[in-house]
């Protein structure tokens, strides 16, 4: 029966309770004694009786790899790449004097490159700085 959009189990006097794990009557899931496999984590059989499927074999091959670790490595590589681009942009912004020595521009001119602003905003800031 549904109560407030959620399924709820009803205890009816005179009717045996139904186990949602093994689908047998006479007990509920909390009291169910069906064995659980430590390999596939399913109920109904033990480790010795576990059937190998294509999915279970493939899962063993990737068991040492954690998906979160792979995603974090990818994110960190992407962040490092973005940081390198920012550094390259700030280096290219520096003015060069006739002697060849580098002279950094004022911070106000480097700021638009560090922050992702539109072209119009960059032009306004550069005009104001001059």
From TrEMBL:
Entries under SUPFAM superfamilies matching the protein: Retrovirus zinc finger-like domains
Cited InterPro entries: Znf_CCHC (IPR001878), Znf_CCHC_sf (IPR036875)
Record-level Gene Ontology MF annotations: nucleic acid binding; zinc ion binding
Keywords: Metal-binding, Zinc, Zinc-finger
Keyword Glycoprotein: no
Biased composition (Basic residues): 76-89
UniProt keyword Protease, yes or no: no
Chain spans, region Disordered: 76-102
Residue span(s) of domain CCHC-type: 19-32
Protein name: CCHC-type domain-containing protein
Organism: Amblyomma tuberculatum
Lineage, top ranks: Eukaryota, Metazoa, Ecdysozoa, Arthropoda, Chelicerata
